[in-house]
Amino acid sequence: MGGCSIKIRFQCLCPSSKDDSAAARATPAPSGNSREVAIIAADVPKLTVRELKKATDKFSASKLIARGAHAEVFRATLPGDRAAAAKRLIIRTPEPDGSAADAGIILKQQVAVASRLRHDNVVRLLGYNITADLPVLLYELAGVGTLHDALHGPEEEAAPALRLSWEQRVRIALDAARGLAYLHEAALPVAHHDVRSSNVLLFEGLRAKIAGHNVFKELEVWNRRPVSRLTAKSDVYSFGVVLLELLTGRKPFDDTLPRDQHILDSWAAPLLAEGRVEECIDPKLGDQYPPAGALKLGRIAVQCLHVQPTSRPSMDTVARLINCDVIMQHQHGVV
Q1: Radius of gyration of the chain from Cα atoms?
Q2: Sequence-ordered list of residues with C-beta below 8 angstroms from that of 32, at least 6 positions apart, any chain
Q3: What Gene3D superfamilies would the database entry show (predicted)?
Q4: Model pLDDT for residues 204-224, shown as the tens digit of each residue
């Protein structure tokens, strides 16, 4: 897998045009009131408990892919031998505050939003069951795994990380940026709230898609208001940390390093702001990267990490900067 090579061939449409932006492949938000929005898309099937158990061999331990505080993920096989990831949710009833709906209604709303997301860089919902006894969401299965594991190696295994090339890292960054831009601006406006390298999934050809749909939080979507700028900018900050991981090969927090390097953004951002990219670059890259391109990607990360949320770029702007300032200039021989 580490020897996989990617050629980056696509057109750059700079800030005056949005044809190459995430919005270009967006599914328009449905018209109408909140009741229509809460309807789950007809092409995303509801699966029975029996079908889910058959697909996962009764949620066998041998099918377990990952376990977290909010879900367990199992490998599933759908009709036609189609592979999928079955995310069995751990539902916690929200605290009553006079306005929160019960957990089942909230889950249905989230599934309704996820079912309508259509973008090349957002993991697609394939099916669901939201009954109280077995709440499960089925998604596309990432054959390569997560960006976190590709960069750092699986935490639960002694497996090595992949040796991602510079071109592969930048392509992954662009894919992920476009996926987030779509969520923020083009479809039913949602913020992700959990942007991190383990929620960037890698598929065939190391193409990246944003995952983590069960933690999406709709922001006034039922009232047809745009996504909260502050919350979207929080996603932008988190994406800046992901860019630093791609640049440095380091984890967001690593207490095995010297104390002043424990927190990745606190250590790397000042160096990159001063143009000292060679002190930050992942040693695994050796000299196989364009210094000018690395510096530009680092400066994009620094913009994402700005202390003032309103001074951070939108994700659509981030995607276009990566495309125009990093990838296209590298293709045209700017080193």
Answers
A1: 20
A2: none
A3: Phosphorylase Kinase, domain 1, Transferase(Phosphotransferase) domain 1
A4: 999 999 997 544 544 333 334
Tokens of 9: 């061939």
Domain 22-331, second-level architecture: Orthogonal Bundle (1.10)
SS3 state of residue 159: coil
pLDDT in tens, 23-67: 334 444 333 344 445 789 999 999 999 999 999 999 999 999 988
> Does the annotation count 194 as an active-site position?
yes
Length reported for the chain: 335
Helix 264-273 / helix 229-248 crossing angle, nearest 10 deg: 80
| 322 three-state secondary structure | helix
**Identity of the residue numbered 246:** L
As a whole number of angstroms, the distance between CA 317 and CA 22 comes to 10
**Quick one: DSSP state of residue 314?**
P
Instruction: Give the CA distances from residue 326 to residues 230, 252, 308, in Å, rounded to whole numbers and listed in that order.
Output: 27, 23, 24
Count CB-CB contacts under 10 A for residue 170: 26
Contact 191, 231 (CB under 8 A): yes
Q: Which of 175, 194, 260, 325 is catalytic?
A: 194
Between CA 58 and CA 53 the distance in angstroms is 4
Domain locations in the chain as residue ranges: 22-331
